[in-house]
Amino acid sequence: MTAGGSAATSSALLSAYTGYTDYLRLTNFGFSIPAGSTILGIQAGVTKESSNLSLTLAGVTLDGSVTDNIVQLVGPGVTSVNRAAGGLAWPTSYATATYGSAADLWGGTTWSTVIVNSASFGVEVSANINGGVLFGTDLVPGASIDLVTLNITYSLPAVLPVRLEQWSVVRQGGANQLTWETAEGGLPGEFVVERSHNGKDWSDLAAVLAGSGVPAGSGAAISGSGASISVSGRWIYNYTDEKPFASGPTYYRLRLHSDGQADTWSVVQVLSAKSIVRPVVTVYPNPFYNTISVSAAETFTHLILTSEQGVALWAKEYPGGITNTQIPVSGLPQGLYYLTIDGVTFKLLKN
Predict the structure, then answer these.
(1) pLDDT value of position 16
(2) φ and ψ at 30, to 5 degrees?
């Protein structure tokens, strides 16, 4: 998948002197790439032009030029390699130059979704101004930028294979009981239980060894966090979260980790806190097309949109609570989706 954004100032004059210009930093592109996605490459597009490149006096002509100095990605605590195109001259009318690609990580930098979704993630541009003096008159070439775009190519986190057949979360007293079932007992690796307060920022809660537990056919009952049992060729696991979040919903997902293989994720399960009063919410239209509108009589604080396979596509938290919002969904393919609002899940269809 690819996410694109743009930010620009019309004909932004970078400099008016010989040497290299100040850095023009463009940030706050507004990316919202789902947590757990893998960034595969980033491409920047810079629409630029140069001007005032020659000066003629008394039949003598002095030529100047504008070339790249710096083109690099920036983010919280991160600066990429410089992708400036060496001595290539800037065009004399606006044209777009591209840097990086769908498979370029700009020097092998590890770009997490936290970095690229940050308001401080963006691109810095600087130019070399090559002017001069002819008979006491300055030649001052100009460098202007009209538009800068960033496109990020990424892969969504995959769901667990078919061997994970059932997966649920229920409340038991003051704790949350997680239970899942697989079709095979000989899986390598471990199930990592992940937890979130907003469906976007996840932390590891526990690890349960795949295929561990009571031998097949024993008929023993499951007890204790991380226990598992094989029943008729199927393995059942459980984990108890003794201290779920006291307010707001608690989101859970499972990550299957095996050495030497890419991690895979389950669908997301949501359980409201005991104190939560579920709001009366209207979600429309259904089927939806370009936007999903949400309207409620009471304030809500957490939204998460997931695919039919349970992949989180969009999530947002409103700390103060809101009663109305719209979710842009024009780029989604046709199919079934789930919107969870403070623990209440709505089934939606995209036409």
Answers:
(1) 41
(2) 75, 30
